[in-house]
Structures are given as structure tokens and as C-alpha cells.
Amino acid sequence: MKPTEHGLLIAALGGVNEIGKNMYFIQYKDDIVVIDCGSKFPTENLPGIDLIVPDIAYLLENQEKVRALIVTHGHEDHIGGIPYLLKQLNLPVYASKLTLGLIKIKLKEHGLLREAQLHTISADSAMQAGEINATFFSINHSIPDCLGICFQTPEGTVVHTGDFKFDMSPVSGPYPDLHRMAEIGKQGVKVLLSESTNAERPGFTPSERQVGEHLLDAFIRAKQQVFVSTFASNVNRVQQVIDAAVETGRKLVLLGRSMVNVVNVSMELGYLQIPDGLLIEPEESERYPADQIAVLCTGSQGEPMAALSRLASSKHPKIEILPGDTVIIAAGPIPGNERNLAHVIDNLYVLGAKVIYGSGSATGMHVSGHGSQEELKLMLTLMKPEYLIPVHGEFRMLYQHRLLAESVGVPSDHVFIVNNGDAVRIEDGKASLGPKVPAGNSFVDGIGIGEVGNIVLRDRRHLSSDGMIIIVTTLSKSEKTMLADPEVISRGFVFVRESEELMNQIRELVLSTMNGLNEAERSQWSDIKQTLKDNIGRFIYSQTKKRPMILPIVIEV
Amino acid sequence: MKPTEHGLLIAALGGVNEIGKNMYFIQYKDDIVVIDCGSKFPTENLPGIDLIVPDIAYLLENQEKVRALIVTHGHEDHIGGIPYLLKQLNLPVYASKLTLGLIKIKLKEHGLLREAQLHTISADSAMQAGEINATFFSINHSIPDCLGICFQTPEGTVVHTGDFKFDMSPVSGPYPDLHRMAEIGKQGVKVLLSESTNAERPGFTPSERQVGEHLLDAFIRAKQQVFVSTFASNVNRVQQVIDAAVETGRKLVLLGRSMVNVVNVSMELGYLQIPDGLLIEPEESERYPADQIAVLCTGSQGEPMAALSRLASSKHPKIEILPGDTVIIAAGPIPGNERNLAHVIDNLYVLGAKVIYGSGSATGMHVSGHGSQEELKLMLTLMKPEYLIPVHGEFRMLYQHRLLAESVGVPSDHVFIVNNGDAVRIEDGKASLGPKVPAGNSFVDGIGIGEVGNIVLRDRRHLSSDGMIIIVTTLSKSEKTMLADPEVISRGFVFVRESEELMNQIRELVLSTMNGLNEAERSQWSDIKQTLKDNIGRFIYSQTKKRPMILPIVIEV
């Protein structure tokens, strides 16, 4: 494949028409620079899959050209796929200090830390790969140390925003660098890749600082323990929980592996300000009165194995929620998680807790980390791009982003809504839809990656909806006569004790089907199997309106 | 079981701590009257289950006492379980004209219509069962012909609200009968059972009429075909779509089996006003220009098999959505359906449609059919109940309903938050938590009911997450020697072609395990099976970190 004999190529390997597993690359001649490598969680139609990461076939095919991975920030949908990438292609990784700290946790878990080539960058850094020059600029999001990227190439400037909002009063980290963005825009941007998460949401996303004020109010009013659940990776919000605990004289307990990991790394690297003696171990909490305890925990999405869920069902070994305690859900539910979270809230009420929850910003305990429509327009106005590729969003978000771009003067045909695997080519100053590159989902299942194919998933779905019936028949090698009664075994189909009659009927039908075959037919295993499948399947459907998987096994002795 | 030797019993068989499958009963001495019999859809942790209906063991045990089923209105969560109930207990059914019409559709599908004992009631009716007297009152909801129930018993008056809002300008059907409710309240209500769906929502739910105005605006602006998707059972909204079509000179196509059924029944019974010639068949639509066509379809929740989903993926055989068409989602997503619906909206945008959607009332195209906090307080103020049993809601909704009751003067310990199966006993004027009755979920799977037990569901979940491995070994009856190489077959585990080595290793381990057993061990099938399960399971986990179901089968010949 030689997609870039001419011009500059910009392609998505993940992150468009989906939320999650962001991965893009730009290529000029023989140099490829990759941006981000995220993961996402599977939906329920992918049973048994643990994680989804981008398909990197194109990079493997062109590995002698791949110069670097630049990572915009430390969230899972931007870093979660890195271990699986580096296992196959150990390329140099460039990221800011905090982002690199979070990447290191992952690499350590995968035993990849020693060999990894990690480089710290900042808003003042520059890097070069062939004729591609990259510089960076500071941007706001719900985690500190986020970078946007400005690539200068012989075909013009390409800007990737990373995830951003314009928080003019950020909790920590630098202000959004409007001056640098204005400067980049003034010098001319050929293509802007801008995130689209909140392209459907009117207005301007409120400052994270607003959440801090509501948290403090709730801490002051609480007469007993206070529990706050949020994403560990929302480091800015974690800081505000810490501040509220300090302000109200409470010790702070951390619960949940990712919370402990992220807080430790952020603290070590100077991104969280935590007074000495604030943090205590869960088992120490008994020593303090209830109004001197705050707990910061994972599980804000109602994930069944996370700390909040275990607290809510009184299954946490070290800490208990008591009647009158306050529980704050300081996060919005990600679509698909509503049911789990509602279940956790119900359980918290059953325990007698005062629960502060609510969709979106209703309670003031959550604001988005992503810019709304006016902020996307502000970015477009600053960058004045000739072309826009909306990224980081499902189709309707990309589509709304296009409407926003039109409203600030970008012509509709200068906006490329692409699929994963689509490349946009810039050549002689003009952009056009370029060649396709391989892209898709790689499934991580157990410790393996990639070996779960569509057939396996189809089987799992089939098994899970109607169960299976196994039929074992034993034939003599020589005369093809049946040597034993056929065995019929079911799993996940019907409860056998209550369906004895049905199972007996199936057994009889297997027997009569086998007896109905002549010797010639019995010599063809595939014929036996197909006939059994057809007869038994038809019978079961007529009796139960179900279609279990039917698996005939023929043994010759 | 003799739970009512004394006093009056009020119990929930379904509908509390859940949304769905409402079913309650009241019992005085030897007379039981049942209220509603709904169904609900399973969540994804119940693979293969089609429907959930209430467990009616208590009614079957006491069938000589069960006098009647009264149905408050025609929604699935109040009528969906009726066929499964009547199959086991053919009791007389009392409901309003429209409600009965919708019940008849179900009974016909189940072949139960001929034997059913159906009685039409209205706000003016009265019925009697032993010492229980029932009268009814008109109430508003998103479907016409809804009734609240007022039971007079020797232990006092018990009121069941049914589902309600206070829509003072209803689209069709009578106004909420405030005067009758005031009268009931004035005469004294011992216990109120009131619905809690929107107990978390502040304020007053807007009138359904507001949706009509937004629909008409959108119809007027649309230059091509207009598609509206809503619940078929939201008959009031259906009327407003009809009105908008009439007003803008469009013909109306109905898509979706339940839409056609509900519209036909409602029209026949006089609950929908449809001018002659308005409705056309899907295939006739080609004869009209695009701006004279409107389509009313099912699928507002993104259900993959419903009309809207098929239209969005261009799989509908008779009608096509073209670029520039308008699609209106006139419904709010039920928690858990957000992902499916988002996927449908994405597909509609890909087709070039203009999509009007949005959560809750953001677009004006949806208002709830359930009263918000101020309306629940209005009901409590009208009825002035001595005791409240909040029903029809998950725990946090029941809990919020209790807080609302307290705010209007009902003492906290006069509010009973109950579980399905809890009974409240009224005796000598005092209410207390009474005996437990059996209650729970009955699963409908295929055409059977109840035969899917927990073991089957556990198996299905296991199969769906990690797949299965079947090991067949053949022994000689006499010497217990192996007569053929063991067969190892996997389904839903790993993609065999890519994992040949692993499968070979498993085969060898089976062989060596079998060879390692002596004759005595081989005579005990259970030993063989357990040893195979242990060895193979351990090996597979060490290699893959997965735990497929392992199913050893021993054949003796």
C-alpha cells in the first residue's frame, strides 16, 4: 500500500463515529506520527470482551515509517490502548509529565516499562519527524497537563485540539493559552482536527470551579461521613474534594484501585496539593468521629465491582455507610450506565444515606470536561482553519460540529466527516478524501488480543440467548451401527428437572432419526449432523419457540 | 397461609422497587380483588428472556377467594401479564372500554378471548366483592380512559390512583375529576396507594397539548416527508400527530405492528378522531408528493427490530427516508435504551434526515405522562390519606414520595415503603406491616413461562462471557480402556483457526489426564469428569485468563 506518494495524509484509526479509543495519524512521505492510542469498553452485544483497542494493521505494515506516538492527555480513551500498541510496535512515546505518569502505571502492569522509550514534553517543546514539525499548546480539560498539537508540514499546518474546554478559571494547571492559539490561527491553519463530544450542547460549559463551591456547601452541611464518587482520572475534581475536606477539617480515605493509583502519581508529580496527614487508611477511619471523615471513591457509573457499588450493598470490608451519611455522585452517567447507577442509588437510600445525585449539572456536582457549542465555535474562530475534520464523537456529534463550523464561516464542503480508516489527503493546498487504511476494533479478552473473531461472538450471543443442546452418538467403525444410546445434554436451554418430558421427546427423536438413516447415510458424518440438527431444531422450535444451538457429535469406535 | 384472619390486607405483587409489572391486591376476609397485571422487559443480565411477569403463587393458592381483576389503564406495565395470569386463573376482568380493547388484542393473540370474562366499567360504575365495594374516578395520563379506584371496606377507604398527571387541558378524554377526588378525600381515606414515577422531578408536568404545538410547527416547516416516532400506547400523542397531519394536508402512514393495532382499536372505540381518507398504506405513499406524507411509527426507544430502526438503516421494505426528510423522536428514552436510540439517530443523520430529538422536554416533542412533585402533593392534599403506600417506582422514587408526603403533613411513620410481597395490614383503624406473601419475577421465554430457572440463567451468562469446551471420551464397558481419541470441541471460546496450538495442548492434556487414571478411577464417571474439569480448567486459565464452561461427557460402549 502506498497511500502517500504525494501530499499529506491525515487519518483516523479510532475515535470517529464513537466515543472512545481515539487514535489518529498524520503521514508525510516516509514519516508517520501517531496521535493518542485509547481504549473503550465493550457494549453488551460483545459478551465476554474486556476491552476494545484500535486495529493497528496499517502501522504494523508501515512500521519502518512510524516515528512517534504523541499523547494529548492521560484519559483512558487516549492512553488505554498504549500497552497493546507497544507490545507490537515499540515506538517512542511523547507526552506531558502527568500523562506520562499515568501511562507508566499501565506499562508497569504489562511489564513494558523497562523497554519503553518515554519522552516528556510541554507547551514549550518541539519535536521533528522528517519534514513534520510538532509544537504544542496548553488546553483545559478535566485533567491537568493537556496539550493540543500544531504540526507544521510542507503542505501546511495541521492542528489537533485534544480534548478541551475553555475554563477561564481553572482549578489547577495553566489557563487555556488563547494567545498561542490566536497566533497559530493568524499564521494559517490548513486542517483543524477538533473534538466534538459536546457539539450537541448549546452554550458554554461552566467552570470546574463551580463544582468546588457545591462540594464545599455539602461538606459543611453534612453532620456525619461524606462519600464522594467521581472518576479517578478527573484530577481537577479530585483536587476540589481534597480542598473541601481540608476546609471542613475532615480526614480523607481513598477507595478503589484506580483512585489510589491516580492520586499517588498526581501527587508525586506535583499535580495534586495534599497536606501531610490528610490521607488516612480505610481501617484508620474508625478512630475519628463521623464528622471528621470524608471518603473519595470510584464507582460513579455504578460499575458493579467498584468501591461505591460495594459500599452501597454493604460489601466493603473496611468502611460502612451509616444512616445519615452523605453520598455525592460527582459525575454524569455515561449513556448505557444509567441503570447500574440507579441501582446503586437505590441501595444507598436503603442504607439511610442522604444521596446527592442527578443528571448532568442539576445538582451542581458535575460539569463536563468538554467544551459546548460556543467553545467549539471559539476554537474555530481562533484557528480559522481552511478545513475541519471533526473528531472524538458519534456521528450526530460530528454532524452538529459541521453545522457549527458552517455558522462561523467554514464552507460545508471543507468539513470532512470521516469514518475510522478514512484518510484525508492534502495535496497542492487542496484537501480531498484519500485512500482507505485498515481500521477497526481489536478485542482484548482475558490476556489475549485479537483472537476473538466474529464467529466466536456470534456463538456467544447465540448461547446466551437460547442455550445449547449437545447430542452424542456412538457408531461402530465397521458397520456404522449405534453402540450406545445417544446422549442428550443441555446447558442454558431449559431447566431440566421441569422439562423432563421435553428432554425425553428429544432423546426419542434422536434415536428415531438415527434409526431412519441407512448405512450409507451413516458413513457421512456431515449428513448425520445436518439431519440431526434439522430434525431436532424443528422439533424444539415447534415446542418452545426457541432456537438453542444444536451440536451433534459423532464418535466412531 | 392465613394472612387475613383479621383486618384488611393490601399487598404488592409487582411494581414497587421497579418500574414495570404492576400488580397489587386487597383482601378482606375471604375476598381478594386484584389491581393490574403488568409485564416488564428484562435487563441484559437475563439473556434470552423475552418478558417478565409477576409471580402469582399467592393468588393460585387462594384462588377460591380471588373475585376480580380491575385494570386501571391500557399500558403494558399494567396489562402485559394478563394473558399469563388468565391462563392459570380465569378470573373476571374489569376495565374501561379502551383498556379492555387493548387487553382483547393480547387475549386474542394467546387464544384466550373466547373464555375470558370481560366487564366494561367507567367512572360511574360500582362493583362489589364480599364486603369490598369499588367505585372509580377519572384521571389523566398519556392514554385515554384511565381510572383511579376507591375501595370502601369495613376497615376504611383505600384509594389506588393508577398512573396520573393533572393535565387541566387534556388532549382527549375527560378532565381530571378534581371534584370527585375532593369528595373522596373529604369522606376520609385510610390508605392511599399513589404512583411515584416522577417523585424525583420538581414542579408540574406540562400539558400534553404543548407537544401538539411543537409537532404542528415542525410539520409546517418540513418541506418533505415527516416521520414521527412515539409509543403506540401514547394514544393522546398519536391523536396530536393525526391532527398535525390533517392541519398540514398530509396523508398518514402507520408503521409497526403495535402502532397499527393500537390505532385500530382506539379508532373503533371512538378514542381517536381520524378523518376518512387520512390513513394510507405504506405502498400508496409513492403516489403523493413528499410534502403530503407523514409517517407515524414505533421504535422511539431505538428497539433494533422496530420500524424506526429499520427505516434508519434503510431496511424497511416499503418506505425510505430521503435526504431532507424530517424525523421527530416524540418520546423520552427509558433508562437503558439511550445507546440504541443514539445509534438510530446516527443512522438517520447518515441518511441526510433532519432529526429532532433530545432528552426530556428539551425539544418540546415530549412531556411525561406522570405527575411531578407538585402533582403528587396535589393528590395527597386532595385525598388527605391517613396512610400512604407509594407505588409504581424504584426505591429512590418511593423514598422521595415519602419526603413529599411529609411536606404536606403525612407523618413519616404513616408512609409504608414496601417490597413486592410485603403486605400492609389495617386492623382496628391502625396500619402495620403484615405478613409476607410470595412474590417475584416469572420469566417468559419462548412460549413457556416459568421453566427458566436461575441455573439456566447462570449457565447462559457463563456461556456468553467465556464460551464452552466439550470433551467427549469413549470407554469400553468391560475394561474401561479408551476406545477412541478424546474429542475436544469449543464454542464461543476462541477462534479455533487462530488457536490451533492451544486446542492441541488441551487435547494432549485430556489424553494424559485419562491415561493417568487407573481402572478404578475410570469406573467412577463423576471422578473422571471432575478430574478433567479441574485439570483442563486450570490449564486454560493459566494460558488465557478465561474460564470457559467445561463439559466432560463420558460414553461407555
UniProtKB/TrEMBL annotation, chains A, B:
GO biological process terms on file: rRNA processing
- Protein's UniProt keywords contain rRNA-binding: no
Give the SMART domains listed for this entry.
Answer: Lactamase_B (SM00849)
Gene Ontology cellular component terms for the protein in this record: cytoplasm
| Residues reported to bind Zn(2+) 2 | H78
Instruction: Give the top-level enzyme category.
Output: hydrolase
- Domain Metallo-beta-lactamase per the UniProt entry, residue ranges: 20-214
Q: Give EC number(s), comma-separated.
A: 3.1.-.-
Q: Which cofactor does it need?
A: Zn(2+); Ca(2+)
Q: Where does it reside?
A: Cytoplasm
Binding residues annotated for substrate, in chain numbering: A232, S233, N234, H366, V367, S368, G369, H370
- Database matches in PANTHER family: RIBONUCLEASE J (PTHR43694), RIBONUCLEASE J 2 (PTHR43694:SF4)
Which family does the record claim for this protein?
Answer: Belongs to the metallo-beta-lactamase superfamily. RNA-metabolizing metallo-beta-lactamase-like family. Bacterial RNase J subfamily.
Q: What is this protein called?
A: Ribonuclease J
This protein's encoding gene: rnj
